[in-house]
Amino acid sequence: MNSDVSQLQLSMKLDRLVVERLFGDGAWLAGSESAVALNRILDELGLQEQVPGTVNTSRWTDLGARLNMDLLIVFLGLHWEWEVPDILEQNHLLDKEESRDVLEALEAGNDPERVLRGLVQKAYFQYYRRPNGTH
Description:
This protein is mainly alpha-helical. The protein contains 7 helices and 2 strands; from the N terminus they run H-H-E-E-H-H-H-H-H.
């Protein structure tokens, strides 16, 4: 199979998973059980690999890096909530003021699911609406 075709199929599979989590009825942020399951899927898809000589430490494969998995795991709800604003900002999906406001809301004890989910949904649409399909 052509590697471009297989990468497209993989991207489509990831997108279905993102849409299910980010826009579905269940919790978006991954709890410990769903985090294990999601990490297993990422391993099986060849997007991450165990760092040699370590335990429970993984890194993105070349394919995972090409697909911008640092951002996609935000969409999957797999990132620690305090890192979400910074990652969105790094990907030009949130400005510094918005990032600061989100961190202040989290520091005030607001529910991360309520603070972040709508923001991440908006970022998802912005990311995939970029001209010429570039990310």
